Amino acid sequence: MIVTLKSGAKKKEIDQVIAKIKELGFRPQISQGAERVVVGVIGEGNKAVTYKDTFESMPQVEMVTPISKPYKLVSRVFKKEDTVIDVRGVKIGGKNVVVMAGPCSVDTRELVLANAREIKKAGVRMLRGGAFKPRTSPYSFQGHGEPALQILADARKITGLPIISEVMDTRQVELVDRYADVLQIGARNAQNFDLLREVGRSKKAVLLKRGVAGTIEEWLMAAEYIVAHGNPNVMLCERGIRTFETATRNTLDLSAVPVAKYLSHLPVIVDPSHGVGVREFIVPMAKAAVAAGADGVIIETHPNPAVALSDAHQALLPSQMASIVKQLRAVAEAVGRTLE
Ligand code: PEP
Ligand code: MN
Question: pLDDT tens for residues 300-318?
C-alpha cells in the first residue's frame, strides 16, 4: 500500500505518518517526488490494506493506494519519476544514454588495460569485467577472483571508468563490494533470493540481469528484493531469454524495455552481447535497444578475442567502439535522448 501526502506537507506531518506506520508494525519506505512525498507501507502480504481508512483519515494524506502487484517499491505507482543512479558521476536513467563495455572475463592486466583505454577514448562510460564467472560447465574457466578485481580497480584508476563486476554468491558480496562500483547479478542468479537480499544491504548500485527464462514480473520482483532490503540503486538488464530459436544464443526481448519502463521507474539496460551471442548481430540490436528506450547498453569487448577466456565468439574489438558509440548517439538523438 502507498500513502501519498498532500503537496506541501510539513516534515512534522510526514513524521506522524511514518510513526503511525511503525506503530502498526509496518516498515515505511519514503520516496521524495518532485511535488509530493510518497510513503510505501511495507509488510507481509496485503495486511497493510486493512488500515487504509486509518491513513486516509489523516489530514495530511492525499490518498491511499493499495498495490495489487506483487512488487511495490520498484513500481511506477510508488514513484512516477525515473530513478537516476549516480555511479561516480556517471548518471544512469536520465536523458543521457550510457554505453558500458569490457571483457566477459578479466584475463591479464595488459589486455584489460588496453581494452579500457581504447573504449574510454571511444566514449564508453563504464568498464565491465567478470572476476567470478557463472559457467555452464564446471570445467570451463571460472574467473580469476580477487586478482581480477585488482586489475579492474587499476583500470579504473588509470582511465577513471567506474567498474561493474558479477557477484555469484553471498560469500563473495563483501569482496566484490570492496572493489566494484556496480555489482552485477547474473541471469542464472536472478532468483537467488539470499544473494538479492545481500546486495540489498550494499550501498553499491546493482545491475540485475533478467533470468534465463524469467518473466518480466519475476525480474521486477527480484529487483523488489534488493530495494526492499535497503538498496534503491538497481538497474534492470535485459540480456535475452531462452526460446525455441537457435539461430541466436538467446532471444533478445526488446519489448521488455518499454514494458519494464512502463511498470517500473528503474533504469533499463540492454545487453545485446549475451542477447544474441553472435558478433554480427550485436550492433543492430544495440541500436534497436536505444531506439526502444533503453537507458544504456552493455557490450563485451576484447582486444584479442582469440585468447579470450570466455565468450570469445561474441566479443567485439575495442577499436570498433568509437564507431558504435557514434551510431548509438545518432539513434539516441533521433528518439530525443543524448549520448555523452
Ligand atoms: C556476463 O555478463 O558475462 C554474463 C555471464 O551474463 P549473463 O548472466 O547475462 O549470462
Ligand atoms: Mn559473457
Answer: 999 999 999 999 999 999 9
DSSP structure class, residue 134: -
Instruction: Find the residues whose C-beta lies inside 6 A of ligand 1.
Output: 104, 130, 134, 186-188, 209, 239, 271, 274
Going along the chain from its start, the domains and CATH numbers come out as 2-65 (3.30.70.1140), 85-339 (3.20.20.70)
Q: d(Cα 145, Cα 223) in Å, to the nearest integer?
A: 25
| C-beta of residue 134 within 8 angstroms of C-beta of residue 168 | yes
Query: What's the pLDDT tens digit per position in 22-41?
Result: 999 999 988 887 788 999 99
The answer to whether 6 touches 60, Cβ cutoff 8 Å, is: yes
Question: Residue 169 and residue 190: Cα distance in Å, rounded?
Answer: 12
The span from the CA of 271 to the CA of 238, in Å, is 6
Distance 331 CA to ligand 1 centre (A): 25
Q: Between vectors from CA 72 to CA 3 and to CA 286, what angle results, nearest 5°?
A: 130
